[in-house]
Amino acid sequence: MGVVVSKRRRSQGNMPQKQPPASDDDGAMSAPASADPASTAPPPAAAAAAAADSKPPAPPNLLAHIPLEHVPASYTVHAALFRSVANAGFLHAQLLARNAAFEYSFVDASTLASTTHLLAAVFRAVNTAASSSSSPSSGLRTPNVHSEAVFCLAPSANIAEAYRRFGISPASRDVVAVKVLTAGSNTTADDVWVHLCASVEGTAVPFTDENVALCTDWAKVRKYYKLNGAAALAGIKDEGARRRDEEMLILGAMALRGV
């Protein structure tokens, strides 16, 4: 049978004998050498620079400023495209809760044929908002200019359907965020970008026709705008020409809504 020895006793038995302190030739004990803290610490400026270098670089500002003709100068339009969004459900919930911090047009990019497609809706919404102050009868049909832009994408006057089809949903993967700023607002475009970067869990890419085209679900677009079987598209073999004609039909349907 083995003998159990406590760790404490074993450590005492193996402890080396205490050596007398070293002394100088005159018998005085010498203190052990120690490093000077001031000599080992980096200079304050170098430490600050190292801390700054360790911070992740700020993401490039991809919030596009969109100049729209025939829009009052007191309105400015900004847009950003995010791909592979992981928290669309959270963003959708903020809109349902009418959280003022999330007053954007969050549009499902899969329903867009081009940047012009979206900007046509924004143009109509902004001009409607601008005219509502002088003519209440021609005012917004929805709570604000951002929800109005989503509504203006629809070819029909059904607001709920417009939100459901063109607005963000928990299933959205690619999202365009549009922000309309007015003169005198305390919010700047830089503020908008910082807030979007902190709120949207996705990859920001430039808001261009090329990137929007990567998101477009043409089967969905053709269904929503009733392009399947359209006589104007019959016989068009060239894909590029067909897409251009489809976009013209989409813009026409939006413009004629309610006429």
Automatic annotation (TrEMBL):
Chain segments carrying region Disordered: 1-56
Composition-biased stretches (Low complexity): 28-39, 46-55
Primary localisation category: nucleus
This protein's UniProt keywords: Nucleus, tRNA processing
Pfam family name, one: CGI-121
Keyword DNA damage (UniProt): no
Designated name of the protein: EKC/KEOPS complex subunit CGI121
Organism: Gaeumannomyces tritici (strain R3-111a-1) (Wheat and barley take-all root rot fungus)
Classification of source organism: Eukaryota, Fungi, Dikarya, Ascomycota, Pezizomycotina
Name of the gene encoding the protein in the UniProt record: 20349304
